[in-house]
Predict the 3D structure of the following.
Amino acid sequence: MSQAPIRIMIVDDHTVIRSGLRMLIEQDHGMSVVAMAGNRVEALERATAELPDIIILDLILGDDDGLSFLPELCKVSPNSRVLVLTGVRNPESHRMAIRRGAMGIVLKEHAAESLLKAISKVHAGEVWVERSMMGSLLKDLENPTPVDPEESKIKSLTDREREVIGLVGEGLKNKQIGERLFISETTVTHHLSSVFSKLDVSDRLELLIYAFRHGLAQVPK
């Protein structure tokens, strides 16, 4: 009796990369791409709907930050195993990804065979990281450095989210923020929802107080 293929979801903001990864993965008859997403909202919706075995996640998704919503992915699809595929070589980002639930990290510069092997290993329950990263990851996980909770929250903000917060501090409404940043009002709403979640505030007033207190916005003169 043949084994069911590994069900995979790809999260990357570039259509060409998503398509290329799909073609590469589906050359292996033991793997099947069941969903693709280009941003946070799509990723969470499709992970919830498909419950894939493996989620391949890029850390940089345009205005979104894969690292910031990685825990949400793990929550909406608890049996999925997240494999980060990234061009980012920052060791701290890699360590944070593992701490937030990723089971493996593959650099985009590696050969295609490395990705396929990583998918198989992570699906089998193993952790996949480069040998050069293993020592620092293990040391970091065994001896975690205490982190100020507010500093951690603020670091999770994307550059675009910081821009939105600054404009909220200037008193601009969503439509005005969208016009200033050349994005839709709906996108502004999505950014604010993400900001509220990351900073643990419930509305614009709480956000303003938090932003002024922590230097994310200038207090009007």
